[in-house]
Amino acid sequence: MYNKTLVELREEIVTKKVSSYELTKYFLERIKKFDKEINSFITITEEYALKTAKKIDQEISKNNMRALSGIPLAQKDIFCTENVKTTCGSKMLESFVSPYDATVVKKLKNAGSVMLGKTNMDEFAMGSSNETSFFGEVKNPWNFEYVPGGSSGGSASSVAARLVPCSTGTDTGGSIRQPASLCGVSGIKPTYGRVSRYGMIAFASSLDQAGVFAKTAKDCALLLTEIAGYDEKDSTSAEEKVINYFDICTKKFKPITIGVPEEFLDGLDNEVRKVFDDAIEIFKKEGCKIKKINLSNSKLGVSAYQVVAPAECSSNLSRYDGVRYGYRAKNVSDLEDLYKRSRSEGFGKEVKRRILVGTYALSAGYYDAYYLKAQKIRQLITNDFLEAFKNVDLILGPTTPDTAFKIGSKANDPIAMYLSDVYTVSANLAGLPAMSIPMGFKNELPLGLQIIGSHFDEDKILSLASHFQEITNWHDHQPKQKLLGLD
Ligand code: GLN
Questions:
Q1: 428 alpha carbon to ligand 1 midpoint, in Å?
Q2: pTM over 0.85
Q3: How confident is the model at residue 160 (pLDDT cuts 50, 70, 90)?
Q4: What is the DSSP string of 260-327?
Q5: Distance 172 CA to ligand 1 centre (A)
């Protein structure tokens, strides 16, 4: 059962081969039995899930089907969930219970899905390895000595470990695509504004975007169709019509023109290059035209991102002051002491580093030198993409420069850690949709293929991705781990 896709599970539910209750119970048992190996969940919502599943089964018995009736899923713990703890991976929100659901959560509930729990993540989504979580590091199901990527590491590893068929994530600079790549699953970050950010705890508001993880692109398409769309509660959400992305994936694939940025291949590891070239060969055989393109400003992406994201985070995280909600220091002497100690004790090292960098970059006298300059670079990066999309339909490259790295190996070297996002941050800076799908292995660790589209071209991305998965089986590979009940 664990290796079935969403599309298959939906079929089993529709044809009443399995009930929502049975499915929910089955995956809950897997989580309870095996998650201790990888720590991908912060909260398991067993009681809620079983109750919801029963309700869904009653609906199904009356032939009242919704798009995702009975589908078990996990929510990244950055999405507010009514009556269920939302920690954002931080001590600051260790016992925070939101009074309302994020729009993404609400939409997935309305579609009939069943939430099994909340997944582990880097604190406030800041990280590329899931080592900064207050709730402990997450392990890569392919090899427990390696990181799953971050910040949505719990969401990616839980799907890779087959503890849940799909999950949600957020991507500010790569946090869906990079863990999807390192864990060998599919993950899509839609266009900025495609999915509502309401109720999604803010890291860097001009970059944050919600998306999903699943085994296949078709599964991602099913989920995206449900969460996409305008939301009056998010002023940056786009009034763009929602397409049925799943239907798009079932249509016959028409060859397209693919751009490959030279900057993404320069100095790339030989084995990663070989795996990527093999993927490109497949598209050539399918009749696609491959064009070399230049995204010359993308090499400045990480530098610009590491100014813009911390600047926005320093502003967003100022709300955690020990007064309104979140952690409050004890025995304080006065108001200033309350602010200082609540924030010093409530936030971890990486979050503090970002707040310091961001506050500095926004301060009088440095604003022009850092923040304004970074914003100008951001525009140049966007212009490169817009220019490229005049001649190509989609842009392809590796998602990450290499496979997963060992736990601890970059934890004390922030620059090395930030560079793992070198291929992903540019899409966020330009607000573009992008996806990672499995494309092969190096030393028995998965590698992801990144597909970047023009604004609101999620349909093109998903169509290409699902076609690739019709002719390859990289997405079917799963970790052979007895400790995860996988053989
Ligand atoms: N790894 C990047 C960072 O540390 C991106 C995080 C994200 O996308 N949330 O900021």
A1: 10
A2: yes
A3: very high
A4: EEHHHHTT--HHHHHHHHHHHHHHHHTT-EEEEE--GGGGGHHHHHHHHHHHHHHHHGGG-SSSSSS-
A5: 5
